[in-house]
Amino acid sequence: MKVYFVGAGPGAADLITLRGARLLGQVRMVLYAGSLVPTALLEHCHPAAEIIDTAALDLEQQQACYVRAQEQGIDVVRLHSGDPAIYGATAEQMRRLDALGIAYEVVPGVSSFTAAAAAVSAELTKPEVSQSVILTRVSGRASAVPESESIASLAAHRATMCIFLSGPHLKKIVTDLLLHYPPATPVTLVYRATWPEQRIYQGQLDKVLEENKRGEWNLTTMMLVGAALNKEQVAESSLYSKDFTHLFRVVKKNKDAA
């Protein structure tokens, strides 16, 4: 018996990995977070699978499902939104599985931050502009963010930032970002990237609050911010330059220039 923590991807049913979809079609028990994972993903499940929405279940109740599957000798898929490694609340489940002697495996998925970038055809890193991406969120009731990782502290790097669950906190986030980012820094908001109800806003940091009504963006909104989002910012890597030599491409020197 084995538990597979599968990344469901950002929402679209065809953005789950081939491995994840194959496992859904094989196992006889599927636990999924109904508040975050669209039911369209369940079309990959085996027709005889028991499908359990964990939105209303606490950790002990979820553990009871694993114990029952262990007693029945059946494999389980625990379907998490995005990628299980990012805000997946998987570590506490794994500790309990370790105590129960139940084997598990993690199958990665497409994260909402890359889906949000794809929605606006953005590259999050550009040479000489930003080569770092910061993934973060603001404190919530379920889990607090360490003070050393506050938006205001991280903004000092001026790297590309991807701020999860940003919708209800736009005023504070924008205020903190403006402590370090220039007012004209590009900002993108993506609500439920790849879902049918996906919504997008693109603007600049000092205009976000005046161009969006309070409460207009819900919890599952991704904010992207940083100079790399500026498509007019021209910066090209040397990797594909005709004059750049590397292990797989040798530039032939011009004999006349020698």
UniProtKB/TrEMBL annotation:
It is an enzyme of class 2 (transferase). Its EC number is 2.1.1.133. The keyword Transcription does not apply. One of its GO terms (molecular function) is precorrin-4 C11-methyltransferase activity. Pfam families: TP_methylase (PF00590). Belongs to the precorrin methyltransferase family. This is Precorrin-4 C11-methyltransferase protein. It comes from Herbaspirillum seropedicae (strain SmR1).
